[in-house]
Each structure stands twice: as C-alpha cells, then as structure tokens.
Amino acid sequence: IQQVFKQLFYMINAIALNNLLLRKDVCSWSTGMQLRFNISQLEEWLHGKNLQQSGAAQTLEPLIQAAQLLQLKKKTSEDAEAICSLCTSLTTQQIVKILNLYTPVNEFEERVTVAFIRNIQKQLQERNDPPQLLLDFKHTFPVLFPFNPSAITMDSIHLPASLNLDFLKKV
C-alpha cells in the first residue's frame, strides 16, 4: 500500500509541476498559495492514514519548492540567495522557467526582472543538474517485496514423483 501511494504521489507531483512549467497563466503568487494549501492537505491525509513513512510526501518536494518559489520575493540579491538555497529539488532550468513564466495577478506584484533571473543563473551555474525541464510522469519506482523466511527447511521438503522433477537431486 505504501509503495502504491508513493507512486501515486509522484505522478501527482510530476503532472502538476509539468503543468506549472508549461502554462504561463498558472505561474502566480496565488497559485503558489493554492498549491501549498493542497499539498498540506495531502500531507495531512498521509499522516491520518499512517503513511508518512511511505516516501510519498518526499515525492512532492519539487512541487512544494515550486509553490514556495512562486510565493517568495524576487527582487534583491538576498532573495536570489534564498531561492537558490531553498530550491534544491528543482533544476536550474526549472527555476529559471518558472521565474520567466511568473505572471503578476494584481497591481501589488511585479514581473521578475531579467537581471534577477541572470543573478539566479549565475549563482546556480556550479550545479550539475540534468538538462531536462519536465519530469517523466511515467517513471515507476521499483516494487519491493519484504523477505519473510520460511520455517520449513529444505531437508524436510518432499518432491512428489508426479511433478517429473527427476533432474533435481537432494544433496
């Protein structure tokens, strides 16, 4: 059950983040607030179902950071440093794309300046990020089956002749 929810939450993360990276109309402060609220509801649900150890919440980390990126101030070099230290699960390309797509919804917000984006790129240039922008939502985690040793010893197993396993010999 834990592995199923980890996979499901990864798919939610990948699809939501990819939509954020492809749609200019959703890159705003209010979307960041809405995303963060919805993610906290998912985290509470996991906690209520005793699934916090499943790793499902960790798969949402890139989406959480993207939501926080939408909510942060984006003006000074201190803001740039905060973004660089906060967004460790996002690639440089994803951070820059979100900043480029950021669209102010009301008159209190401002567009992100080109100088600010270049500052971010300069600070993140030493990262060895993969060149991909979008997440692979078809990625599947390996299924892990717990090992439960049997109480039956190999010496006590009797192989019936009807199975035609004459090539097997007891040693």
Automatic annotation (TrEMBL):
Pfam family, one: DIL
Domain annotation Dilute: ranges: 1-126
Top-level taxon: Eukaryota
A GO term for molecular function: GTPase binding
TM regions (residue ranges): none
PROSITE patterns the record matches: DILUTE (PS51126)
InterPro entries: Dilute_dom, Vascular_dev_regulator
Coiled-coil regions, chain positions: none
PANTHER family: DILUTE DOMAIN-CONTAINING PROTEIN (PTHR16027:SF6), DILUTE DOMAIN-CONTAINING PROTEIN YPR089W (PTHR16027)
Protein name (Swiss-Prot/TrEMBL): MYO5B protein
Taxonomic source organism: Melospiza melodia (Song sparrow)
